[in-house]
Amino acid sequence: MDNTFSSFNPISRTLMGPGPSDVDPRILTALAKPTIGHLDPQFIELMDQVKQLLQYAFKTENALTMPISAPGSAGMEACFANLVEPNDKVIVCQNGVFGGRMAQNVIRCGGELILIEDEWGKPTDINKLADALKTHPDAKIVAFVHAETSTGVKNDAKALCALAKQYGCLTLVDAVTSLAGVELRVDEWQIDAIYSGTQKCLSCVPGLSPVSFSPAAIDKIKARKTPVQSWFLDMQLVMEYWGEGAKRAYHHTAPVNSIYALHEALVNLHNEGLEASWLRHQRCHEQLKNGLQSMGLSLVVEQDFRLPQLNTVYIPDGVDDAKVRSCLLNEFNLEIGAGLGVLAGKVWRIGLMGYGCNERNVDYCLNSLQAALD
Ligand code: PLP
């Protein structure tokens, strides 16, 4: 084995897959600022700003709004591990890969899983949720993915939460791909627990998971009869460091520089305006959709349920999936995503997320794809 090593210098790509997305150079600059202590008063001030900016991004006043020091999957685990107690009935709506992971989380937490399934590429059928809630009036939680990255479907978070609330359930929502890319209103839509990721429409580096818990969710956590199995993700402990009026007691060493990066990403979002960001994603989606359709390609998801930031496109008959993607990567430095799960080999996933969601990138993607197909 060669035992000479040198610095890693990746070539710059245009990332238009399902994430990570292109990181704004301003965010990379923020990441390179000097590391300070995670209990330094300057850092504590920054933490307060990050919490306020996340409240802005989530449209919530929830005091417990903060980033988990690990990727989106850890945000998912934090929500389930804290809210699900053994034998709690939890309804999970699944229409893609990530809903399936939610179901796995319920089982691993000892909950009783009630699974509602819909076809991949179609939204969750609210009537199925209504039936499940009638059949299981003792259900405690309804969980679903707002933006299903595996299919490009947007589930109707507002309607699903409103229905769950009529039955007294807590609502638990995956917003890994939705945050900042599409309308999301945590308080107005009555979402009790939500998690996201930094590497999608926030255009930040991967590795952090913004979460938010409502007062009702915190009450459930505080009333637990059994301790949360995960020490690291136990929100009662994490609250001592991140929570409102917290003692800022040492819990774990926060990923200081990543928090600088998240702060910069959120400042960018705040400067642009949340609604303006949603509109930009929609505008670029229209441009991409028109271009793809004029190339004879068709999108998997119907217009009304389509995510602007994640476009699933059918691979035309006779076209070699891997060959096209590797041509894009090697000749155009452009990454698009392969299909996942049942859609593997059938679709490409084209991301329009955050900083990378702009007219120039859409044109570049369309021209490169046309060249790869010719
Ligand atoms: N949920 C959804 C909808 C996702 O798209 C992803 C990642 O793509 C995750 C959860 C997991 O996030 P991470 O890969 O950051 O752990």
TrEMBL record:
InterPro entries: Aminotrans_V_dom (IPR000192), Aminotrans_V_PyrdxlP_BS (IPR020578), PyrdxlP-dep_Trfase (IPR015424), PyrdxlP-dep_Trfase_major (IPR015421), PyrdxlP-dep_Trfase_small (IPR015422), SP_NH2Trfase/AEP_transaminase (IPR024169). SUPFAM superfamilies: PLP-dependent transferases (SSF53383). It comes from the Bacteria. One of its GO terms (molecular function) is transaminase activity. The keyword Nucleotide-binding does not apply. Gene3D superfamilies: Aspartate Aminotransferase, domain 1 (3.90.1150.10), Type I PLP-dependent aspartate aminotransferase-like (Major domain) (3.40.640.10). Residues 35-343 form the Aminotransferase class V domain. Coiled coil: none annotated. Keywords: Aminotransferase, Pyridoxal phosphate, Transferase. The keyword Transcription does not apply. PROSITE patterns: AA_TRANSFER_CLASS_5. Residues 1-12 have a biased composition (Polar residues). Belongs to the class-V pyridoxal-phosphate-dependent aminotransferase family. This is Alanine--glyoxylate aminotransferase family protein. It comes from Aliiglaciecola litoralis. The lineage of its organism: Bacteria, Pseudomonadati, Pseudomonadota, Gammaproteobacteria, Alteromonadales.
